[in-house]
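Researcher: Hi, I'm a grad student and pretty new to this. My advisor asked me to get structures for two proteins we've been looking at. I'm not sure of the right format, so I'll just paste the first sequence and hope you can take it from there.
Model: That works fine. Here's the first sequence with its C-alpha coordinates right after it:
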Amino acid sequence: MQNPFESGHVKNYILLYVGVVVIMILFFTASTLFNDIKKVEKKVFDTNISNYLSAKDADSKKEDENTALKFKLLDKAY
Protein backbone atom coordinates (compact mmCIF):
# COMPACT_ATOMS: atom_id res chain seq x y z
CA MET A 1 0.00 0.00 0.00
CA GLN A 2 1.30 3.40 -0.90
CA ASN A 3 1.54 6.31 1.46
CA PRO A 4 -0.91 9.02 0.24
CA PHE A 5 1.40 11.76 1.52
CA GLU A 6 4.25 10.54 -0.68
CA SER A 7 2.22 9.73 -3.79
CA GLY A 8 0.42 13.08 -3.99
CA HIS A 9 -3.12 11.85 -3.34
CA VAL A 10 -3.58 14.26 -0.43
CA LYS A 11 -4.85 16.91 -2.85
CA ASN A 12 -7.69 14.60 -3.91
CA TYR A 13 -8.68 13.90 -0.31
CA ILE A 14 -8.69 17.59 0.54
CA LEU A 15 -10.78 18.42 -2.53
CA LEU A 16 -13.27 15.68 -1.60
CA TYR A 17 -13.52 17.04 1.95
CA VAL A 18 -13.98 20.63 0.75
CA GLY A 19 -16.64 19.49 -1.75
CA VAL A 20 -18.61 17.71 0.98
CA VAL A 21 -18.41 20.78 3.25
CA VAL A 22 -19.56 23.09 0.42
CA ILE A 23 -22.53 20.81 -0.34
CA MET A 24 -23.48 20.78 3.37
CA ILE A 25 -23.34 24.58 3.48
CA LEU A 26 -25.49 24.87 0.34
CA PHE A 27 -28.13 22.53 1.74
CA PHE A 28 -28.14 24.45 5.03
CA THR A 29 -28.62 27.81 3.34
CA ALA A 30 -31.31 26.43 1.03
CA SER A 31 -33.22 24.95 3.95
CA THR A 32 -33.10 28.23 5.88
CA LEU A 33 -34.13 30.33 2.87
CA PHE A 34 -37.10 28.22 1.79
CA ASN A 35 -38.35 27.37 5.28
CA ASP A 36 -41.49 29.41 5.92
CA ILE A 37 -41.86 30.30 9.58
CA LYS A 38 -45.50 30.29 10.57
CA LYS A 39 -46.62 32.64 13.29
CA VAL A 40 -48.66 30.91 15.95
CA GLU A 41 -51.57 32.87 17.28
CA LYS A 42 -52.00 33.02 21.01
CA LYS A 43 -54.97 30.95 22.15
CA VAL A 44 -57.42 32.48 24.58
CA PHE A 45 -59.35 30.11 26.77
CA ASP A 46 -62.82 30.81 28.09
CA THR A 47 -62.73 31.28 31.85
CA ASN A 48 -66.49 31.04 32.30
CA ILE A 49 -66.85 27.53 33.75
CA SER A 50 -70.46 27.56 34.93
CA ASN A 51 -72.00 27.28 31.44
CA TYR A 52 -69.58 24.54 30.49
CA LEU A 53 -70.31 22.41 33.56
CA SER A 54 -74.09 22.58 33.14
CA ALA A 55 -73.86 21.61 29.46
CA LYS A 56 -71.41 18.83 30.26
CA ASP A 57 -73.69 17.32 32.94
CA ALA A 58 -76.64 17.25 30.52
CA ASP A 59 -74.51 15.60 27.83
CA SER A 60 -73.12 12.97 30.18
CA LYS A 61 -76.62 11.89 31.26
CA LYS A 62 -77.67 11.49 27.62
CA GLU A 63 -74.54 9.47 26.86
CA ASP A 64 -75.16 7.13 29.82
CA GLU A 65 -78.66 6.36 28.59
CA ASN A 66 -77.44 5.72 25.04
CA THR A 67 -74.56 3.47 26.06
CA ALA A 68 -76.76 1.34 28.28
CA LEU A 69 -78.89 0.42 25.27
CA LYS A 70 -76.05 -0.18 22.81
CA PHE A 71 -73.81 -2.52 24.82
CA LYS A 72 -74.61 -5.78 26.51
CA LEU A 73 -72.15 -7.59 28.73
CA LEU A 74 -71.67 -11.31 28.53
CA ASP A 75 -73.13 -13.41 31.32
CA LYS A 76 -69.96 -15.45 31.67
CA ALA A 77 -66.38 -14.16 31.45
CA TYR A 78 -64.04 -16.36 29.43
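Researcher: Oh nice, that was easy. Here's the second one.
Model: And its structure:
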Amino acid sequence: MYQILYQGGHGSHGPRAQALANVTPGAQCGDIATTPARPVQGLTTLAFWGHGDSFQLCNKSAREIHEVIKEWKAVNPGLGTVEIITCNARHCTTGDSFANQLKHGIGWRSSLKGLTIKALPTTVGGKRNAWSILLAETIRNSWVYITAPGATDSLLMEANSLIQYEKMPSGGLRSFNGDIAMRADKVVREHPMRQWTMNYGYMNTLRAHLGVV
Protein backbone atom coordinates (compact mmCIF):
# COMPACT_ATOMS: atom_id res chain seq x y z
CA MET A 1 0.00 0.00 0.00
CA TYR A 2 1.05 3.55 -0.76
CA GLN A 3 0.09 6.72 1.13
CA ILE A 4 0.68 10.20 -0.31
CA LEU A 5 0.64 13.28 1.92
CA TYR A 6 0.41 16.47 -0.11
CA GLN A 7 0.69 20.16 0.71
CA GLY A 8 -2.70 21.81 0.39
CA GLY A 9 -3.70 25.43 0.65
CA HIS A 10 -2.82 28.02 -1.99
CA GLY A 11 -1.33 26.31 -5.05
CA SER A 12 -2.37 22.93 -3.67
CA HIS A 13 -0.44 19.89 -4.82
CA GLY A 14 -3.58 17.83 -4.24
CA PRO A 15 -4.64 17.32 -7.89
CA ARG A 16 -1.16 16.09 -8.86
CA ALA A 17 -0.95 13.81 -5.82
CA GLN A 18 -4.36 12.38 -6.67
CA ALA A 19 -3.29 11.85 -10.29
CA LEU A 20 -0.30 9.84 -9.04
CA ALA A 21 -2.52 7.88 -6.66
CA ASN A 22 -4.89 7.07 -9.51
CA VAL A 23 -2.14 5.21 -11.40
CA THR A 24 -0.59 3.55 -8.31
CA PRO A 25 -2.30 0.33 -7.16
CA GLY A 26 -3.48 0.48 -3.57
CA ALA A 27 -2.64 4.18 -3.20
CA GLN A 28 -4.38 6.75 -1.02
CA CYS A 29 -3.68 10.45 -0.66
CA GLY A 30 -4.58 13.25 1.71
CA ASP A 31 -3.62 16.75 2.81
CA ILE A 32 -0.69 16.57 5.22
CA ALA A 33 -2.36 19.18 7.42
CA THR A 34 -5.62 17.27 7.86
CA THR A 35 -4.71 13.59 7.42
CA PRO A 36 -3.70 12.07 10.76
CA ALA A 37 -1.58 8.94 10.97
CA ARG A 38 -3.77 5.85 10.94
CA PRO A 39 -3.33 2.11 10.42
CA VAL A 40 -3.40 1.17 6.72
CA GLN A 41 -3.28 -2.54 6.02
CA GLY A 42 -0.09 -3.44 4.16
CA LEU A 43 1.31 0.10 4.13
CA THR A 44 4.95 0.01 3.01
CA THR A 45 5.56 3.46 1.49
CA LEU A 46 4.80 7.01 2.61
CA ALA A 47 5.22 9.78 0.02
CA PHE A 48 5.35 13.56 0.41
CA TRP A 49 4.44 15.91 -2.46
CA GLY A 50 4.66 19.64 -1.80
CA HIS A 51 6.81 22.71 -2.11
CA GLY A 52 10.43 21.96 -1.27
CA ASP A 53 13.91 23.41 -0.97
CA SER A 54 16.99 22.65 1.11
CA PHE A 55 15.24 23.86 4.28
CA GLN A 56 11.73 22.47 4.17
CA LEU A 57 9.20 20.15 2.55
CA CYS A 58 5.45 20.76 2.68
CA ASN A 59 6.30 23.77 4.89
CA LYS A 60 7.97 21.50 7.43
CA SER A 61 11.60 21.13 8.50
CA ALA A 62 13.43 17.81 8.28
CA ARG A 63 12.87 17.30 12.00
CA GLU A 64 9.13 17.97 11.63
CA ILE A 65 8.91 15.53 8.71
CA HIS A 66 10.69 12.96 10.91
CA GLU A 67 7.90 13.35 13.46
CA VAL A 68 5.21 12.83 10.81
CA ILE A 69 6.96 9.68 9.63
CA LYS A 70 7.29 8.41 13.22
CA GLU A 71 3.56 8.84 13.76
CA TRP A 72 2.77 6.77 10.67
CA LYS A 73 5.45 4.18 11.49
CA ALA A 74 4.08 3.73 15.01
CA VAL A 75 0.77 2.43 13.65
CA ASN A 76 2.16 0.86 10.47
CA PRO A 77 5.21 -1.25 11.44
CA GLY A 78 5.65 -2.43 7.82
CA LEU A 79 6.42 1.11 6.66
CA GLY A 80 9.95 0.97 5.24
CA THR A 81 10.22 3.59 2.50
CA VAL A 82 9.66 7.34 2.27
CA GLU A 83 9.44 9.06 -1.12
CA ILE A 84 10.08 12.78 -1.57
CA ILE A 85 8.39 14.26 -4.64
CA THR A 86 9.31 17.92 -4.92
CA CYS A 87 11.73 20.55 -6.23
CA ASN A 88 15.23 21.05 -4.80
CA ALA A 89 15.13 18.24 -2.21
CA ARG A 90 18.49 16.92 -3.50
CA HIS A 91 20.22 20.30 -3.95
CA CYS A 92 21.63 23.11 -1.82
CA THR A 93 23.92 26.14 -1.95
CA THR A 94 25.01 25.89 1.70
CA GLY A 95 24.74 23.17 4.32
CA ASP A 96 23.16 19.93 3.12
CA SER A 97 20.23 18.99 0.93
CA PHE A 98 16.85 18.34 2.54
CA ALA A 99 16.88 14.68 1.51
CA ASN A 100 20.30 14.18 3.13
CA GLN A 101 19.18 16.00 6.27
CA LEU A 102 16.21 13.66 6.47
CA LYS A 103 18.42 10.60 6.03
CA HIS A 104 21.23 11.70 8.35
CA GLY A 105 18.76 12.68 11.07
CA ILE A 106 17.80 9.04 11.58
CA GLY A 107 20.02 7.81 14.40
CA TRP A 108 20.85 4.17 15.11
CA ARG A 109 18.53 4.23 18.11
CA SER A 110 15.70 5.85 16.17
CA SER A 111 12.43 4.03 15.53
CA LEU A 112 13.09 4.92 11.88
CA LYS A 113 16.42 3.09 11.71
CA GLY A 114 16.70 1.29 8.39
CA LEU A 115 14.14 3.48 6.66
CA THR A 116 14.84 3.96 2.93
CA ILE A 117 14.62 7.55 1.65
CA LYS A 118 14.01 8.04 -2.07
CA ALA A 119 13.94 11.27 -4.09
CA LEU A 120 14.39 12.60 -7.60
CA PRO A 121 18.02 12.73 -8.82
CA THR A 122 20.71 15.36 -8.42
CA THR A 123 22.09 17.20 -11.40
CA VAL A 124 25.19 15.79 -13.12
CA GLY A 125 27.61 17.81 -10.98
CA GLY A 126 26.05 16.79 -7.68
CA LYS A 127 24.03 18.45 -4.95
CA ARG A 128 26.10 21.57 -4.16
CA ASN A 129 25.36 24.84 -5.99
CA ALA A 130 22.61 23.22 -8.03
CA TRP A 131 18.86 23.51 -8.44
CA SER A 132 15.84 21.52 -9.57
CA ILE A 133 12.17 22.02 -10.37
CA LEU A 134 9.33 19.55 -10.92
CA LEU A 135 6.51 20.53 -13.27
CA ALA A 136 3.40 18.39 -13.64
CA GLU A 137 -0.08 18.68 -15.12
CA THR A 138 -3.17 16.53 -14.63
CA ILE A 139 -4.95 16.70 -17.99
CA ARG A 140 -2.49 14.36 -19.72
CA ASN A 141 -0.73 13.36 -16.48
CA SER A 142 2.64 14.47 -17.86
CA TRP A 143 5.64 15.83 -15.93
CA VAL A 144 9.22 17.05 -16.30
CA TYR A 145 11.96 17.31 -13.68
CA ILE A 146 14.68 19.85 -14.54
CA THR A 147 18.08 20.22 -12.86
CA ALA A 148 20.84 22.76 -13.44
CA PRO A 149 24.09 23.87 -11.77
CA GLY A 150 24.82 27.39 -10.56
CA ALA A 151 25.31 29.64 -7.56
CA THR A 152 21.87 31.06 -8.49
CA ASP A 153 18.92 29.41 -10.21
CA SER A 154 19.24 31.49 -13.39
CA LEU A 155 20.23 28.55 -15.61
CA LEU A 156 17.42 26.46 -14.16
CA MET A 157 14.93 29.22 -14.92
CA GLU A 158 16.22 29.46 -18.49
CA ALA A 159 15.57 25.75 -18.97
CA ASN A 160 12.23 26.06 -17.20
CA SER A 161 11.14 28.82 -19.60
CA LEU A 162 11.78 26.48 -22.53
CA ILE A 163 9.00 24.28 -21.14
CA GLN A 164 6.69 27.00 -19.86
CA TYR A 165 6.64 29.12 -23.02
CA GLU A 166 6.65 28.56 -26.77
CA LYS A 167 7.25 30.92 -29.66
CA MET A 168 4.32 32.05 -31.78
CA PRO A 169 4.66 32.60 -35.57
CA SER A 170 4.83 36.34 -34.82
CA GLY A 171 7.96 35.76 -32.73
CA GLY A 172 6.26 36.47 -29.42
CA LEU A 173 5.85 34.01 -26.55
CA ARG A 174 2.79 32.30 -25.18
CA SER A 175 2.30 29.96 -22.24
CA PHE A 176 2.53 26.28 -23.09
CA ASN A 177 -0.49 24.31 -21.88
CA GLY A 178 -0.01 20.95 -23.57
CA ASP A 179 1.73 17.67 -22.86
CA ILE A 180 4.78 18.55 -20.75
CA ALA A 181 6.57 15.28 -21.49
CA MET A 182 6.26 15.75 -25.24
CA ARG A 183 7.40 19.35 -24.86
CA ALA A 184 10.43 18.28 -22.84
CA ASP A 185 11.36 15.65 -25.40
CA LYS A 186 11.30 18.30 -28.14
CA VAL A 187 13.35 20.75 -26.05
CA VAL A 188 16.00 18.15 -25.24
CA ARG A 189 16.38 17.19 -28.90
CA GLU A 190 16.71 20.85 -29.89
CA HIS A 191 19.47 21.46 -27.29
CA PRO A 192 22.06 18.67 -27.61
CA MET A 193 24.72 20.87 -25.95
CA ARG A 194 23.35 21.70 -22.53
CA GLN A 195 24.30 21.95 -18.85
CA TRP A 196 20.79 21.35 -17.55
CA THR A 197 19.04 17.96 -17.49
CA MET A 198 15.44 16.92 -17.98
CA ASN A 199 13.74 13.72 -16.81
CA TYR A 200 10.20 13.47 -18.12
CA GLY A 201 7.28 11.14 -18.63
CA TYR A 202 3.80 10.41 -17.29
CA MET A 203 2.44 9.81 -13.80
CA ASN A 204 2.76 6.05 -14.19
CA THR A 205 6.55 6.46 -14.66
CA LEU A 206 7.30 9.22 -12.13
CA ARG A 207 8.18 6.92 -9.22
CA ALA A 208 10.61 4.96 -11.40
CA HIS A 209 12.79 8.08 -11.53
CA LEU A 210 13.17 8.22 -7.74
CA GLY A 211 16.50 6.96 -6.42
CA VAL A 212 17.72 5.92 -2.98
CA VAL A 213 19.36 8.82 -1.11
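Researcher: Is there anything I should tell my advisor about the second?
Model: You could mention this: The chain is about 25% helix and 25% strand.
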